[in-house]
Design a protein that fits this description.
This protein is of the alpha/beta class and 208 residues long. Helix content is 39%, strand content 13%.
């Protein structure tokens, strides 16, 4: 007769590997199978590779902060984009997250500045206008240097709500408000859009 498996049975692999798998599994988009593959990849990798990875992770947590102007992530303040004198300071592109800037910069078509909201208005999730960087945006727009604000929030319900709210606040300031063209399908997150689609969306932007 087979013995019953004990509830306190030891894990099938060594504790440090199990712990690494558990931590990797907490990352977005990493399922348990992917976490296992990554853990055993790191186990087989040279110790130097593992050390460099751990140092890179720690440096991100210890050295990265928010730009005091646009709230992009940066290791210097202001960030490289904000202090670049060659950027067009008459245009500010509004995005939800820092990774959206990476997507837009990869197209090499937009030469203005950015403002990162760090979220979108979502009443169902308890996120209101006061929970994202809208007040800081309005302060920036008081300097009379900005002629156009480009709303590049995601094309989903939360992004559309945020864009409409911002349009109501900015339009009375006499600043032109545009929205990325509808080359972006509804529900698309900016960071996942391809370069061609993003380029067309920027070039074909329309007044809100």
């Amino acid at each position: 007769m087979r013995e019953k498996t004990s509830i306190n049975q030891a894990p099938p692999t060594a504790e440090p590997i199990s712990r690494l798998i558990q931590e990797l599994n907490k990352l977005p988009g990493i399922g348990i199978k992917s976490a296992q593959r990554l853990a055993f990849y790191l186990l087989r990798a040279p110790e130097e590779s593992a050390r460099l990875l751990s140092e890179a992770i720690l440096s991100v947590k210890q050295q990265i902060t928010f730009c005091s102007v646009c709230f992009n992530v940066t290791d210097s303040d202001p960030c490289r984009i904000c202090r670049n004198e060659e950027r067009d300071r008459s245009k500010v592109c509004i995005v939800e997250q820092p990774q959206d800037i990476l997507a837009l910069e990869h197209t090499r078509i937009y030469k203005g500045l950015y403002h990162v909201l760090h979220g979108a208005i979502s009443p169902t999730d308890g996120v209101g206008a006061g929970d994202i960087r809208i007040r800081e945006l309005l302060e920036r727009l008081k300097n009379n240097q900005v002629d156009e604000v480009i709303l590049a929030t995601n094309t989903n319900l939360e992004g559309e709500q945020t864009a409409m709210y911002l349009n109501r606040l900015i339009s009375p300031l006499g600043i032109k408000v545009t929205r990325l063209a509808r080359g972006l399908p509804f529900g698309t997150e900016l960071e996942y859009a391809d370069d061609v689609t993003l380029t067309r969306a920027i070039e074909g932007r329309q007044e809100f």
